[in-house]
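Is this the right way to post structure tokens for a design question? Let me know if I should format differently. Anyway, here goes:
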């Protein structure tokens, strides 16, 4: 038996005026997803437990079968694993975004212009992080380069009681002052963020981007603190081997922590320009090598939601359907093995609010051996109308693996 999880990050949404009162899932031309929906179990799943923030970290842990209330220790430690950082038990890791802030003189009056610094390239970003580490790094603070705008700060003998360290994608276009933590523990980190503005103001990378009319990486933004994660081995938990195919450090870190394979895919990004076909090919190769379960993760719908890009969010869903799901179905249909497929988002990223919500998300589970009476198309309303609800998101993996009802 082979198992495929097609995880469309942030795909779920609400009816949107830019889409004539429809959701991106309702608008998208997704014939392969909808063909499965007609003969699958369809319902809703609550991936974010009460009391936790609706991040991709919490939600993807749920989908992978890990109860976040038991296993979650913060987002950044998982990302740190992905880029090879060896954390000590006393270390605290934080996400270090490269962002674009407006140019008001007083730091608290600046606005969050762009949480991803114009999709800065990894090569440019590493030059900036190198400078930040040279200027701000020491025995206590160490900066590590990640992918694109996503990087890591490790604080030796750090604390996690930092108050509200707001994710930058939650405050696009807003004045940052009211979103800065007032905790005394966070004060040294806020000071690093302030100092970074002066350091990066005329950095060579930013001068070059300025000349091209691109958003500059003129500040760092710290958030997502946590300690070294301790996930149980996925194979030992579930009796199947796994491979996680993703462009983002978070999912790769979860894969490393859980003992799953995490192949690199050249050309894979966290946006709509990712290599959809290349990621599908990596998943097929994992199946051919004997892996039981492939977790194919696409960040593009989430990124489009954060940016309020309605048409691109629809397009992202269509590209996943045509360029990723179709070749996976072609392979699974010809490989000679039975297979089960789970398709779902991890959380909603509504275009109206440009950030995550904790609302339940639609899911479908298809079994090649048994055709069920499903729904006409895979949408939020159709899934909710079935009346099925998985109240604890971490149970969806057991449902896929037929280890629970």
């Amino acid at each position: 038996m082979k198992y495929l999880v097609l995880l469309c990050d942030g795909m779920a949404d609400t009816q949107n005026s830019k889409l004539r009162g429809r959701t991106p899932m309702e608008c998208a031309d997704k014939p392969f997803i909808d063909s499965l929906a007609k003969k699958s179990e369809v319902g809703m799943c609550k991936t974010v437990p009460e009391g936790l923030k609706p991040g991709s970290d919490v939600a993807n842990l749920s989908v992978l079968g890990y109860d976040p209330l038991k296993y979650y220790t913060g987002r950044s430690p998982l990302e740190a694993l992905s880029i090879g950082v060896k954390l000590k038990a006393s270390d605290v890791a934080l996400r270090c975004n490269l962002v674009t802030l407006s140019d008001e003189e007083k730091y608290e009056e600046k606005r969050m212009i762009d949480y991803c610094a114009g999709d800065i390239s990894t090569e440019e970003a590493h030059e900036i992080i190198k400078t930040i580490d040279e200027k701000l790094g020491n025995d206590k603070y160490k900066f590590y380069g990640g992918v694109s705008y996503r990087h890591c700060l490790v604080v030796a003998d750090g604390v996690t009681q930092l108050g509200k360290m707001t994710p930058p994608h939650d405050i696009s276009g807003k004045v940052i002052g009211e979103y800065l933590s007032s905790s005394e523990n966070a004060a040294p980190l806020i000071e690093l963020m302030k100092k970074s503005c002066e350091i990066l103001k005329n950095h060579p990378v930013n001068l070059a981007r300025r000349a091209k009319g691109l958003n500059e990486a003129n500040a760092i933004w710290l958030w997502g603190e946590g300690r070294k994660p301790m996930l149980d081995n996925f194979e030992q938990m579930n009796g199947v081997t796994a491979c996680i195919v993703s462009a983002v450090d978070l999912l790769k870190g979860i894969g490393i922590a859980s003992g799953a394979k995490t192949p690199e895919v050249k050309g894979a990004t966290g946006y709509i320009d990712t290599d959809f076909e290349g990621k599908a090919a990596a998943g097929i190769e994992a199946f051919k090598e004997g892996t039981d379960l492939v977790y194919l993760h696409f960040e593009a719908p989430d990124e489009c939601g954060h940016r309020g890009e309605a048409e691109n969010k629809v397009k992202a869903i269509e590209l996943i359907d045509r360029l990723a799901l179709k070749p996976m179905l072609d392979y699974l249909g010809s490989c000679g093995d039975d297979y089960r497929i789970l398709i779902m988002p991890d959380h909603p990223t509504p275009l109206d609010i440009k950030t995550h919500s904790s609302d339940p998300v639609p899911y479908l589970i298809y079994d090649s051996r048994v055709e069920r009476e499903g729904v006409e198309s895979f949408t939020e309303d159709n899934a909710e109308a079935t009346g099925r609800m998985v109240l604890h998101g971490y149970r969806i993996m057991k449902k896929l693996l037929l280890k629970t009802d």
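Format looks fine. Someone answered above. Worth noting: The domain at 2-72+232-400 is CATH 3.40.720.10 (Alkaline Phosphatase, subunit A). The first helix runs from residue 24 to 27.
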